[in-house]
Amino acid sequence: MTDFFQDAPLRIAGRDFTSRLLVGTGKYRDFDETAEAIAASGAEVVTFAVRRTNLGQDAAAPNLLDVVSPQRYTLLPNTAGCYTAKDAVRTCRLARELLDGHNLVKLEVLGDDTTLYPNVVETLAAAETLVNDGFEVMVYTSDDPIVARELERLGCCAVMPLGSLIGSGHGIQNPHNIRLIIEQAGVPVLVDAGIGTASEAALAMELGCDGVLMNSAIAHARQPLLMASAMRQAVQAGREAFLAGRMPRRQSAEPSSPLAGRINA
Fold first, then answer.
1. What does 28-97 look like in DSSP terms, one character per residue?
2. How does pLDDT run across 165-223, given as a tens digit for each residue?
3. How far apart are the C-alpha atoms of 135 and 143, rounded to whole Å?
4. Does residue 27 carry a catalytic annotation?
5. Burial group, residue 36, by CB count within 10 angstroms (0-12, 13-18, 19+)
6. Of 20, 102, 106, 232, which residue is the catalytic one?
7. CB 15: neighbour CB atoms within 10 A?
């Protein structure tokens, strides 16, 4: 943030964060690139797929925790690859066991493996079970304001509507719905999925989102470290623009210099 203005931290489940960019760990060339990209992004919250990540279960394989230290980052285990509430709940409980009681999770329950669109019926069921089981649930969902409101009512600590399909890079396809979700929400709203480049991350923040979560946009860039830096700056710029308040849109031109008091030849 600029020197003349200090933003309030992003607060999720009682935890405060300076960075409003959350990042994933998948799709990088190796763990070294993963670590470098995360550092370049400035992110403080790092998400990973519990079912696809070695956290020490396999002593012979690289361990994510060796490069993404729980002392430096807030870990956000997610349920990627789950298609039922039952599987998602089981995966979160596994994460809690592997991470010594860690209870902050990202819930996602997918409808199919073609669109990776959320199955909101199963998501709602899983969210209710997890909240009742003591988890702090950040939830990936559709951009339906009614579903978002119900997830908050169930006790989710953050609502994360998609901008567009996971990994598509199509940006925010329905900004009006995202804005509706933001306007009614009493918990943080973060765009999750679909962001492809820095301008799209900035747009999410200009809409009033509390943060952005991404993976593919950085990992699939030609230069992931450079894109990670670009995303860090875009999220900050979008946040500052939202707080500053954009100029009103007008139907006609208006001179930037006032006419009153001008010198006439």
1. -SSHHHHHHHHHHHT-SEEEEEGGG--SSSSTTS--GGGTS-TTTSEEEEE-TT--SHHHHHHHHHHHHH
2. 999 999 999 999 999 999 999 999 999 999 999 999 999 999 999 999 999 999 999 99
3. 23
4. no
5. middle
6. 106
7. 14
